[in-house]
Target: Cys/Met metabolism, pyridoxal phosphate-dependent enzyme
Amino acid sequence: MAEVRTIRGFVYPKKRTAGADEFDDDEVIKAKKSGLPTAWDNSPDAALASARHEFGEHGGVNMSIEASATFTVMEPETMRRMFTGELGPDRDFFIYSRHFNPTVLSLGRQMAALEGTEAAYCTSSGMSAISCSLLQLCSSGDHVVAATSLYGGTHALLGEFLPRACNITTTFVNITDHEAVNNAIVEGKTKVLYFESVANPTLTVANIPELSRIAHDKGVTVVVDNTFAPMVLSPIRLGADLVIHSVSKFISGAADIIAGAVCGHASLVNAMMGLHQGTLMLLGPTMNPKVAFELSERLPHLGLRMKEHCSRAMAYATRMKKMGFKVIYPGLEDHPQHELMKSIGNMEYGYGGLLCIDMETEERANKLMYLLQNYSQFGFMAVSLGYYETLMSCSGSSTSSELSDEEKVLAGISPGLVRMSVGYIGTLEQKWSQLEKALIRMQDKDCDNLFNKN
Model:
């Protein structure tokens, strides 16, 4: 038996030999059961704290970075057994880092704990996680039902790329119209129901339990992009089958990393890693182990960050609404899915870190963003989200620009919709004073002179 170091109940196995005793679970990336009380099952923070902790090679509290592209074996027979699947990462045998890498695998265990799934695999980007998932679940001639309001890149993938390249078609529907969703599903042909837990950029909250019921009644797999609501919503616990993340956003938190993740049932994630037909394996969206290490160090404080993002968003939304601005935020009582969010969300974290201000026209949206960045120094005009500074963009002309004008109307995206990813740097009152200063200036009739360059 190989040497094993056990500290505080966590196990760190040294390199095993081919004759070593097997682990009690032959699913290569299946998360181990923690034995936690049932009451903790709905707490992402508690689940993360219970995830297997990897120690460094020399006993460091942080795991080592396994930067190798390929891995050695002690006996020639071992390599044959690895390629047949007899020996794998569950027993500490690794072939090549495009398949499995110890550092990336450890981050995958953390992501599985975060989302309450059996397994997870981390990828080089959020779009690679989305595309690999859809291509694994669909074949030529298959059909997808998807929400009208989606990130522009996802909309283009479903509406333009997949029909042309793969003969996979999509029907876009209003995800809040459950009858329309049900009617759009073609039994025997529709393979996936795809939507975002909180829609980009409209902040529409999906009724995950009801949508999952509708899909499962017709044998359809439910795939949910939870990028906007890590910690806040737990789609798998609400009935979904697969959860996608752009880890680049809130999970990273520093706007310096591009990464993605696929979280779901072990059988599905393992199929995606199959040597012959697995999209994650064959399309090669490999995460760099150095990136995985950095992200694994940020996950433990994701809960703290999300609570502050959400708290600030709620404060700003409430105050801006009192000033007479048209604010969209799930935490406001006039939001169409406010009560739904209360019933399905993990309320200790809040209602999400994004809000929208509808300025009605692109011109007025641009004026507001200009003032917020260049006049009051409240935030930055930039796409993406989850940064410690506030980021803002006019969605219709940026992250949703792939949609046609008609598609934007159907998705509920106003030309003047400003999407704001609320940061947490500074004090609440300090940042509110900057925001308020720009909002007051916005109401001045002569503010055009500040940025009229013509």
